[in-house]
Structure formats: C-alpha cells, structure tokens
Amino acid sequence: MEESESLAMFVEELCRPVRLSFQKKAPLFGLESLRFALSTDTFDYSAPENCGFCVPLEASFYGGSQNESCLPDGLLDLSQCRSLPMVASNPHFFEAAPEVKKLFPRTVRKTRDREVITVDVEPKSGTVLRMNKRLQYNVLFQNFPDVPSFSVMRSGVYPMFWVNETYSIGDANLQTLKEDLFSPVATWKLVCYIAGVGLGGLFIVLSLLAGLCTILRSRKESRRIHITSASAPTSSRVVPSSEGASPTLRNRRH
User: Fold this and answer.
1) Rounded Cα gap, residues 123 and 1, in angstroms
2) Local confidence band at 39 (pLDDT 50, 70, 90 cut-offs)
3) Which residues lie closer than 8 Å to 107 by C-beta, 6 or more apart?
4) Where does the chain cross the membrane (predicted)?
5) pLDDT > 70: what percent of the chain?
6) N or C: which end of the chain has fewer CB within 10 A?
7) Mean pLDDT: which of 56-70, 133-147, 182-196, 215-229 is highest?
8) Cβ-based neighbours of 202, under 8 Å, separated by 6 or more
9) What pTM, to 2 d.p., does this model score?
10) 36: which DSSP letter?
11) Which residues, other chains included, contact 55 with Cβ-Cβ below 8 Å and sequence gap of 6+?
C-alpha cells in the first residue's frame, strides 16, 4: 500500500461508495500504519462524481429553490434510500457549508482524526489494523408558520445522534500478522549474514592458499635453477699453442 493510493469502500448507511485518501503515517500496535480518511469532497456537490447524489429538494431549504437545488455541501439526503426525511453528515457537521453550521453556533470544532471515517492500514500486507466509521444522522425539518409548536423553528437539518463504529484487529490476528511480517525478514537477514561471513572467510582462505602456492612455486623454481647450474657437465680439450709453446688444456661447460 502506497501513500499515493486511495481506498474505495461502500458504506451501507450512506447507500453509496466513498473514497478515502491518505492522511498521515500513524504507527499502531508496534507496526507501521498509513491512515486514510474520508475525502474532503465526499459531500461536495460541485464534484462531478457526486452529481448523482444531489437530490432535488421538495421544499425550500437554506435559500435553495424547490425541485431545483439540493442540500448544501456537507449533507447527504437519505430520503431516496431510507424512505424517511433523514440526512447524513460528518459528526458535528464537520466540513459542512457555513449556512448549515449557522443554526448551531456552538458546534464543537475538532480534527479530521476524530470527525470522519478513518482506516489504518499496514502497508506491506494491506491489512486493516483499525477502522472508525463516524457518521451523524439528522432530520430534515420544515417550518410550518401555521403550527404554533413549529413556527419558532427555522427550516433546516437538525442533528439527532452521531455514532462511531470501531473495528480493531484482534490479538490473535495481530500476532499472526507480526509473525508473517517479521519472521521472513529475520530469517533473510540471518541467511545473508551467514552467507556474507562464509563467503568472506572462503575468499580469505583461497587468497592465503593462492599466495602460499605462489611462494612455494617461486622457491621451487629458484632451487631448480640453482641445482641445474651446479650440476652442469664440463669437457676438456687440448688447444695447440703457438710454435715452441706447450699445448694448453681448456675446460668447457656444457
């Protein structure tokens, strides 16, 4: 798994697939881990891939025209999927349009790590170490001026509750994963170490033997030359001298 990659998953509660992008490195359980978070454009209706999820409103909300506009960014209409006037969003309307948050000025501001869907993945094996599926469920409320109980409330989306479904790899699976990751590496390092030391020692021994053979061969050649010189046969012959002189005996080495 690389940082440049993204994860795709289908979220049943949203009735749609979503994409998660790399956020940061987040070591977990003593292992390397890459954290992927829900893409910031998931509820952005200006993105071409989200045009099919822009459900025309049956009434005027947030200044939008009836049957012509959809909910503001950050909200997902679930009425076509759940047959109820329900709307999904990130918890605390995180990354929702300003007009949505305007109804709730005291909304808690948190970080993406705690407000969106996140998945922590071990990069070598692609194993999911932990996942947090965070969603908020809201109701779409319309103001009815003629009904006293509802006349004081403004039309818009009102939160009901938010959930955080967490998955974490079990101890047994975590131990198996660590063995699969570390045992081959440790074995390979040991084999490389032994092979390196063994080959190094072998090269040293071969070098010593080659040097010793060269020295012995050199000494043997030197001794052979010396013996040959010392044992070479000689012959004598009489060389006549000039008149009146005695003949001279000369030795000649063969």
Assistant:
1) 4
2) very high
3) 92, 93, 101
4) 193-216
5) 76
6) C
7) 133-147
8) none
9) 0.68
10) E
11) 70, 71, 77, 79, 80
